[in-house]
Fold these 2 entries.
Entry 1:
Amino acid sequence: MYAITGITGKVGGALAASLLAASLPVRAVVRDATKGAAWSISGCEVALADMNDATALAAAFAGAEAVFILPPSEFDPTPGYGQARQTIDAIVAALLAARPGKVLCLSTIGADATQDNLLTQRTLLEQALSALPIPVTFLRPGWFLENSLWDVASAREDGVIHSFLAPLDRPIPMVATKDIGTLAARLIQEDFKGQRVVELEGPRRVSPNDLAAAFAKALGRPVRAEIVPRDNWETMFRSQGANNPYPRIRMLDGFNEGWIEFSDGGANALKGSTDAETVIAALVQRDAA
């Protein structure tokens, strides 16, 4: 049995779909029975558990050959990452109680960065899970190509995507969530000991200009990328409701300054097969529908 948290998201859903396609047993770990209904119809066993409830999580993980860990992302964390630490403590307690055969954790590029930033939440998770007496794989993907969903409207209406990444011609590691789910399905079935880190990016690195070109192709109109000045970020994020925008700002700094990167510059990172043009074409088509 493979217990999958975060199954209602793109990566967890792609992982579960791959396992089901291989006729493998899947337990969907959800906090809302309504969201679990569709997975039940697909053939999953459903377990109800909030990610902060160690007892419910332990029951959901009980008897599992492997567990996929994907905590909810907190984009406006309180100073000190109290919410993330509470969730991490619950996950660790549940895994110690259930003792599954192995764990696959969706982490992120930059989880090994020493500077405090939004991704530090995954750093804390990796540190906690590394202390477990259970084999753990940390899957560290690059920037999600699907983040471009937020640019569809401005690309379609104004011919512009607003980029926090700079310079505009600098490519960074990006990857499609489909490729993350596909690799996760393979990794969760592999036998291993101790801890390992697996890095993943797309077939080639992608710059903001590349994203704009992909939008132009998908929309059949000129699209350009424009930099959002860093001096405007804090005001912008606070106007959008953020109380603590500093970690997000520092994460963006990390990509732009180069200290959020794979450990060896991506030399040994695995490569997905889905390119930016494919992902953006799908986002544009979905928006039009």
Note: The mean pLDDT is 96.
Entry 2:
Amino acid sequence: MGPSYDRAAEDTGNIVALEHVNVQVPDQILATQFYITGLGLTRDPYLMTAVTNMWVNIGRNQFHLPTGEAQVLRGRVGLVLPDLDALARRLGGVRAALAGTQFDFTAHGDHLEVTSPWGNRIRCHGPDPAYGRTTLGMPYVALDVPRGTTDGIVRFYREVLRAPAALDESGGVPTARVAVGMGQVLLFEETDAPQPAYDGHHIQIYVADFSGPHAALLERGLVSEESDQHQYRFVDIVDPADGTVLFQLEHEVRSMTHPLYARNLINRDPARTNMSFAHGREDWRWAELPGA
């Protein structure tokens, strides 16, 4: 008999990837200053290259930033970035260009708390074994939800989306943890703080069983958009027991046969400049090799 392994640790459940977070931005130039120059991310060179939308690559994940009235996620996005000291220098370098906006950042030991020009909160971590081999990516999205909702949220993702979900109270705040892909989670954290009205921002997920959740959502009257053969959407997260709406967050649900599934995303090394250019060193690898 060979060594024993925790096989359950490799289970991802039905949601195989959280690909992108979508928030509208009023100004593409300011968005470029923040997301590309400041955070050091990479504008997708192939898709959405006009001035009405920008797709921003983060390893195998993205921000989608269509032009429109500002949308603010009720919570925060967690990113892993290669070098927090370099990140702080870049963010300091765009402070003047983003003056008069809500942009700010502060260091908190092992992470940076960053606020976008329109108030979106991003928590930036360095590479850490807690995030596997990821050196560049989006390991979690954390949402602020009302008190008493996390039990129902756990049941919703288990029963409707067929994703592993559990209630975690270890940090003193009841939190629904939902597995949404390899090394990725959605966190729903209870809070007493008043929340603004939902403004239409969304996340996008890929699922292995595409028709099962669709049928469960359709039965409850929750499908908000029949997009095309490969995609549908829903907004309301409900208690499966009685249909009570617990939280609103549009989910763009795609099948694994979607043409964009597992598309290779270009990621640059933000340390490279015209003065430090070296052939073959333009790209950043989002996952480190074991033992490297």
Note: Helices lie at 28-38, 84-93, 150-159, 211-219.
